[in-house]
Write a structure and sequence with these properties.
By secondary structure, the protein is mainly beta. The protein contains 2 helices and 8 strands, in the order H-E-E-E-E-H-E-E-E-E. The strands form 2 sheets. It has a 4-stranded antiparallel sheet with strand order 1-8-3-6, with no helix packed on it. A 4-stranded antiparallel sheet has the order 2-7-4-5, with no helix packed on it.
């Protein structure tokens, strides 16, 4: 009889006799980061298409290394002309520092245009850091 009870105990523990079941790891989306570089001409504007690969909180950071005045705009993807004149601006950063920043909640699959506007009398190199958390 002891042998039967011992065999049943061994079989029960070998088959996972506990009541807890394994759980799948949670799928936390990975942050998305992209860098875009460019040059804007004297008193010029440049546009960059932007397709959103995942939902989350997006931050666009425009930076350049001079005392020039550059501004950053975000419009919908159908905007084809200078934003203040012909398109609705969804977000803007137009300070006087060497960094401009826009934050916005976005959804996967959305499309936008990023605009860099120069108020400088010389061409300016810039970098746009795109981050979605």
């Amino acid at each position: 009889m002891k042998a039967v009870i011992l065999t049943l105990c061994v079989l029960a523990s070998a088959c996972g006799g506990g009541s807890s079941s394994p759980t799948a790891p949670s799928a936390t989306p990975q942050p998305y980061n992209q860098t875009v570089t460019g040059t804007v001409s004297s008193l010029g504007i440049v546009q960059h298409p932007l397709s959103i690969p995942r939902s989350g909180n997006m931050t666009l950071t425009l930076s350049w290394g001079t005392t020039a005045d550059l501004d950053l705009y975000l419009t919908n993807s159908s905007c084809n002309a200078y934003p203040p004149d012909s398109c609705q601006i969804l977000a803007a950063s137009d300070g006087v520092a060497a960094t401009e920043r826009i934050t916005r909640t976005v959804t996967s699959g959305e499309s936008f245009k990023i605009w860099v506007d120069s108020f400088s009398f010389s061409p300016q190199n810039y970098t746009i850091a795109i981050s979605i958390q």
